[in-house]
Amino acid sequence: MNGDAALTSAPNPPFKIADIRAAIPKHCWIKNPWRSLSYVLRDFILAFGLMGMAVYIDSWIFWPLYWTAQGSVFMGLFVIGHDCGHGSFSDNRMLNNVMGHVLLTFVLTPFHGFRIGHRTHHQNHGHADKDEAWVPLPENIYKNLDSSTKFLRFTIPFPSLAHPLYLLYRSPGKDGSHFNPNTELFLPSERSNVFFSTVCWSLMFVLLLVLSVVIGPVQMIKLYWIPYWGVPLQSGTKDCGLFIMRYMKEICLDKELKFVSKWLRRGSLSYGVDDLNEIRIEWAKYFMKHETS
């Protein structure tokens, strides 16, 4: 199908959103702030514990394992902060906002700027013009891209830089920034919140610069920037979460300690459907065991 071909809508599914919600057990809708806070505490203990281990061991055998594990922990912190933006962390908006700032600022994401942009994304899922996060590229535009642009946009590991660029410039073809309160993305009543989040982000960035001076830039790159950048990605699939779980399983079960080689080839890893289904089945069994016990 070429870029100008007419698109036909898929048939509606034989169920509605209300049917899905009704099928979910009622206890799953109860927000427990103490449980949510325990996850935050757990992940920060993991993050700083891993940092301490990496500094203490300081071995190039251990560093690749640290980068992989810490990258996954950073992603976990981001996900909990993302849930704060959705209001699923607790029923207390103030608690959601405070913890959202703590979590997302730690991974250099402005909470309110991201929250509002992400809200716009969910309000316009898959819309070719209005979706804030996923903007499909028409075929005629893709064909006219210069080779360097194609290389940077579609070649691993460069797409892993997309998140900070998205925060700074929004999606291609859209004006403004998630840091700028005056961007059209934000309502006048939201601008003070966006400004506050930008200030928090700036303070975190300054703290990272100060730490780079105190402990040295190389050590800071190893401890923070590589995990921030280096979570392994699988190109051309929406199963990236399962991919990371499969990758971590391979790391944890590696009796020959080939961490360095696994890290170096993380950009070219490819797991098949059977590999990812193995994780799906294990996760489903784990969930059923603990939910029915």
Automatic annotation (TrEMBL):
<feature type="domain" description="Fatty acid desaturase N-terminal">
    <location>
        <begin position="10"/>
        <end position="50"/>
    </location>
</feature>
<dbReference type="GO" id="GO:0016020">
    <property type="term" value="C:membrane"/>
</dbReference>
<dbReference type="GO" id="GO:0016717">
    <property type="term" value="F:oxidoreductase activity, acting on paired donors, with oxidation of a pair of donors resulting in the reduction of molecular oxygen to two molecules of water"/>
</dbReference>
<comment type="similarity">
    <text>Belongs to the fatty acid desaturase type 1 family.</text>
</comment>
<dbReference type="InterPro" id="IPR038765">
    <property type="entry name" value="Papain-like_cys_pep_sf"/>
</dbReference>
<keyword id="KW-0472">Membrane</keyword>
<dbReference type="GO" id="GO:0006629">
    <property type="term" value="P:lipid metabolic process"/>
</dbReference>
<dbReference type="InterPro" id="IPR021863">
    <property type="entry name" value="FAS_N"/>
</dbReference>
<dbReference type="Pfam" id="PF11960">
    <property type="entry name" value="DUF3474"/>
</dbReference>
<feature type="domain" description="Fatty acid desaturase">
    <location>
        <begin position="60"/>
        <end position="233"/>
    </location>
</feature>
<dbReference type="InterPro" id="IPR005804">
    <property type="entry name" value="FA_desaturase_dom"/>
</dbReference>
<keyword id="KW-0560">Oxidoreductase</keyword>
<feature type="transmembrane region" description="Helical">
    <location>
        <begin position="194"/>
        <end position="215"/>
    </location>
</feature>
<feature type="transmembrane region" description="Helical">
    <location>
        <begin position="94"/>
        <end position="114"/>
    </location>
</feature>
<protein>
    <submittedName>
        <fullName>Omega-3 fatty acid desaturase</fullName>
    </submittedName>
</protein>
<keyword id="KW-1133">Transmembrane helix</keyword>
<keyword id="KW-0812">Transmembrane</keyword>
<comment type="pathway">
    <text>Lipid metabolism.</text>
</comment>
<dbReference type="Pfam" id="PF00487">
    <property type="entry name" value="FA_desaturase"/>
</dbReference>
<feature type="transmembrane region" description="Helical">
    <location>
        <begin position="63"/>
        <end position="82"/>
    </location>
</feature>
<dbReference type="InterPro" id="IPR012171">
    <property type="entry name" value="Fatty_acid_desaturase"/>
</dbReference>
